[in-house]
Amino acid sequence: MRVLEVKRLKKIYSWMSSHYKRLIIRVFDSFLPLGGELDLKGYVVLRGYIPEGINLEEKDELEKFLLSDRYILDIFQSYIGSKTFEYSELWEAPSSSSSGVWHHDSVGHRVKVFVSLSDASDNLGTQIIPNTHKMCYQDYNHTRLKVSKKNEAEAQLITMNRRDVLIFDTNAIHRGVYGKRTRIVHQFELCTGLKGKMLPGHIGVRSD
Known about the structure:
By secondary structure, the protein is α+β, with helices and mostly antiparallel strands. It has six helices and eight strands, in the order ααβααβββαββββα. The longest helix has 27 residues.
């Protein structure tokens, strides 16, 4: 098969794949409540929210607390209509990552929760551009974005100390800010389970 034919087939596949993802995302997201505190800016920061009695290293104990706390549950249910984590992992931030580029996560509206196990380091954390969680994208295959100087100036850098909680919609434009000092977080994700099953690949990982 000639090179030009291969490229053309890849282009057609990419177009079909993006349209399929967009259809699934638009249909399922149309049924979400998308209200409450999380809808105000697309993220909520809870400083020192995890009680000292909760062992941060025990994922099951931490998960039980998050899914029983009335305030956090209200954020989840008011926005995503779910109180079940679809995915979780202990994540140690590398010194650099492809997520250091402005992007959305290619799954539409989904709630991600970071619980910090380490203390903040200057200028390291997660940057989020407020109110971009309401955006509708045309391309769900190539999610790395160029943002305007105005939007970049509005971006909020969220640094986290141990026991802080960050809750945000990964449909918002965001990026990680990395450096030599290690950041360690428990990461949890909520979405509608059926949407996750119908989208190709692991809901927690999206290739560019």
